[in-house]
Amino acid sequence: MFWKRASAQPTTTTTPEPVPERPLSPQAIRDIVNQNDNDELTSQQSKPGVFERTMGMEEQKTRKMLAEALMMVVDNSEQMVEETPQGMSFQTSSLASASSHSWLSKHFGPRLLHKLFAADSLGNYVINRRTGKKEWESMPIYARIGMHLLFYGPAAIRFVTWSWIERILKEASEREGRIYDSTDVKSVQSHIRSFIATYSIDTSELLEKDLTKYATFNSFFSRRLVPGARPPAFPEDPSIIGSAADSRLTVFHTFSEAKSFWVKGRHFTVSNLLEDSSLTASLGKSPSVAIWRLAPQDYHRFHSPVSGTLRKITHIPGQYYTVNPQAVNEDLDVFTANTRSVAIIDAKFSKDTNETIPIAFVAVGALLVGSIGWDKKEGEEITRGDGFGYFAYGGSTVIGIFPEKLDVQWDEDLA
């Protein structure tokens, strides 16, 4: 957008030259860090109730280190390979890999790196529901440590909520969205094939198996699968709630349990998440919660967990924090601050009655996510398991909020 200054004298109007897009390089981020130092401190100190202080040397050092962590995450966001020497577990290989990077070894000695990996949430274990075994979740090393520094601990949380950091996260997400929408054939095909090899993507499931037909990386990332690739369990039983996505699933019988054991954001409430007082009231005081977290390697379309009618979709603009547990488990309002879309489904849970019960289905965007898309329109009928929507590149999450009156009973191995 261009602004014209008012003038007392008539002037000849000319079309301004387009301003070239500023690349969000590490140096660009350094410039933003430097130019915002004084402005941010002044803003912080002028707010009522904020303790006025001067920034000490230790805080300056911490701030610069965190800024450098952000630079590493952004500048290496396209790196998809977790360096895994043969014979090493993901956790062990990540530690060995971390020690070999000069940026990391500059800030952390070997003992501290080991402590970070062993005790300080530097990564995630997940349970493979099919095998019952615990697995270390793969993630590129720069992203793993950069996100830990940015989102783990009170100092990092205070830092990442400053306005100029939020602007960088927004610009980074939008920039990556443009990169993944690039139509440069050589780059797109190289990126797709690298992604398939890195994450062992099963291409036999693809609806479009000819990789050259994907014009952009995002078109592959939000790929469709052949019909029946994700069949719903017990399709004839409307009382069943199905899985919404290939994901890391966490469920809670009540919303208060979710807040106590998992989501630590201080403003994480049903009302703040949905921003719809009528819908919030209809869900009751203790609705059940399912959180499906999609990692970048996952099939990035989500499906309806219930049957019914799509009543409404509301988009809520917001921030671009990561939805990784490293952030969700901290006092950062990830789900209630992030960009998200809220769908209301008037669900049918019985064949014997036409009664509908509203549920909330929330698609949450995240760091390096370009967009949230929907396959269904308001007023359309939905069957459990139907394709419902998709995310562009990045980690992302969908959340189901089910009314207290349903008294949802989750499978034992989940709860």
From TrEMBL:
<dbReference type="GO" id="GO:0008654">
    <property type="term" value="P:phospholipid biosynthetic process"/>
</dbReference>
<keyword id="KW-0456">Lyase</keyword>
<dbReference type="Pfam" id="PF02666">
    <property type="entry name" value="PS_Dcarbxylase"/>
</dbReference>
<dbReference type="InterPro" id="IPR003817">
    <property type="entry name" value="PS_Dcarbxylase"/>
</dbReference>
<feature type="region of interest" description="Disordered">
    <location>
        <begin position="1"/>
        <end position="24"/>
    </location>
</feature>
<dbReference type="GO" id="GO:0004609">
    <property type="term" value="F:phosphatidylserine decarboxylase activity"/>
</dbReference>
<keyword id="KW-0210">Decarboxylase</keyword>
<protein>
    <submittedName>
        <fullName>Unplaced genomic scaffold SPHSTscaffold_58, whole genome shotgun sequence</fullName>
    </submittedName>
</protein>
